[in-house]
Amino acid sequence: VQLQASGGGMVQTGGSLRLSCAASGRTLGTYAVAWFRQAPGKEREFVVARRLSVGTTYHADSVKGRFTISRDPAKNTVYLQMNSLKPEDTAVYYCAIGRPIVSSIQRTGSYDYWGQGTLVTVSS
Questions:
Q1: What does the pLDDT look like over 38-53, one tens digit per residue?
Q2: Rounded CA separation 118/114 (Å)
Q3: Which of 46, 98, 103, 104 is the most exposed place for a label (fewest CB within 10 A)?
Q4: Is-contact 45 119, C-beta < 8 A?
């Protein structure tokens, strides 16, 4: 399985970006798909995940109401729509897939495959 993340860039505070995560080698439908991010000098942190087979979504408190995860099955691609961006959202964003149990959905170790990361920079 290969995941290709794209869509990062530089945006001003309050702006929007949409990240893409295109999968090849396996259909996403039976997996959970997640986005994590890692800011300079910090650990990788959970952002949002969706269990695609049941349609449930989990958000980090810091992005609730601002970030939305969606999927295009025809393109085997997952998107992260980020609105009302803040400087503290600046990070490298990674997509990942796996089959975590619900209690472990926010753990990096629960995911088997990772994209290469795409940089998001939010200027103040």
A1: 999 999 999 999 999 8
A2: 12
A3: 103
A4: no
DSSP-assigned letter for residue 109 = G
Three-state SS for 94? strand
The position carrying tokens 């939010």 is: 122
8 Å CB contact between 3 and 97 = yes
Beta strands in the chain (DSSP E): 2-6, 9-12, 17-24, 32-38, 45-51, 56-59, 67-72, 77-82, 91-98, 111-114, 118-123
d(CA 67, CA 55): 16
Q: Is 57 helix (H, G, I), strand (E, B) or coil?
A: strand
Q: In this structure, what token pair is assigned to residue 28? A: 């996403």
**CA–CA separation, 29 and 97 (whole Å):** 10
